[in-house]
Amino acid sequence: MNTKKIFILIKIIVPIILLYVVFSRINFNDLATIIKKANYRILIIALLNLPLLYFLYCLRWKILLQGFWKTKVSFLHLLKVFYEGFFLGYYLPGGIGLDAYRVINATKSEKKYMPHISIIVMEKICSLVSACFLVVVVSLLIKIDNQVVHRIIILGYIIIIAFIIITTLAFFFKTKTFVHKLIQKVEDFIILKIRNLMLKMYPDNIQSANSTSYFKEFIKPFSSFHFIGITLAFSLVMQILCAVFGQIILLGIGVSVPIIVNIFCSPLLSIITMLPVTFGGIGLREGSYIVIYGLFGISKESALLSSLITFFVIIFNILLGGLITLISNIRNTISTPQSESHKSC
């Protein structure tokens, strides 16, 4: 059995074990009681949260594309690509399926991939930094009695400090000659690796392996405080929106906690679920909700139900993405024969 198959097997086994551990500790009578008493009108509002979140994702995407690469793409096209990617790639660990789909299909006709890769990498970094920032700030205001969480908070401090130092150095040294030489060496190394790979895959066609300046195009925005600032500001707003989403769900199942609890829990949960441990975060999400919400006296049953409702809302949006993908494919199927008939004429 090769390494790839072993990793896939692990990612299938781990969520099964985690789900078994989670559900073995749940009192199903209490869970049923909470479900019966839930306020479904409030929970319906939660369905609107993720579309709003994805609206902001695509708005940021469009602003960065237009502002830094002068690439004009329709907002509705970006939203369509995002939902299609969400449908096709959600269950790949770390959201890599969605990211790959965005890179390939956003400006497919022009084949401008590097701007999207640069934006996605910065999104990941700023999402992590903004989550750490909220966790660190709120941890100063509330009492946390858990050693694992304390270690995550310390890690949050380290990530924030490292981010500030690296971005500051990148800004001040971006014009230095030695930096350009270092970038050139890194780029040459990457291009050489790509070239060797392309030669193995396509020995008769090496043109595509001769391209240069990929790395420069990728790294250029990372020395711009404007680029970083926009990405970070959107990330903070979206983290707070996720906290509001968590608050609405808890209110819907009859749990009343101060909003500051969710401003702490939501980004902390997002940090944990970023780990590419299981497909779609299954098992990891449910266990994390029980542990993190349990710090604030929320019962295992309420925490589990909150995670399941969150998962249901995600599934609802995945199905919405599936519907958009289906409609898009039908339109493409209808338009293709028409375009071919015009060519034959």
Task: Tell me about this structure.
By secondary structure, the protein is mostly helical. The chain has 14 helices and no strands. It has helices at residues 3-24, 28-37, 40-46, 49-69, 75-89, 96-105, 114-139, 147-172, 177-201, 214-219, 225-252, 259-273, 284-294, 300-344. α5 (75-89) runs antiparallel to α6 (96-105), α11 crosses α12 and α13 runs antiparallel to α14. It is globular. The N and C termini lie far apart (54 Å).
What's this model, at a glance?
This protein has 14 helices and no strands. It is mainly alpha-helical.
Main traits of this protein?
14 helices; 345 residues; 77% helix; mainly alpha
Fraction of helical residues: over 70%
Strand content: under 5%
- The strand count comes to 0
Radius of gyration: 23 Å
Major sheet size, sense and barrel closure: none
Shape: globular
Structural class: mainly alpha
Distance between the termini: 54 Å
User: How many H/I helices?
Assistant: 14
Mean pLDDT: 82
Detail the poorly predicted runs: 205-212
Element order: H for helix, E for strand: HHHHHHHHHHHHHH
List strands and helices in order, with pairings.
Elements: H1 3-24, H2 28-37, H3 40-46, H4 49-69, H5 75-89, H6 96-105, H7 114-139, H8 147-172, H9 177-201, H10 214-219, H11 225-252, H12 259-273, H13 284-294, H14 300-344
Helix pairs in contact: 1-13, 3-11, 4-5, 4-11, 5-6, 5-14, 7-8, 7-11, 7-12, 11-12, 12-13, 13-14
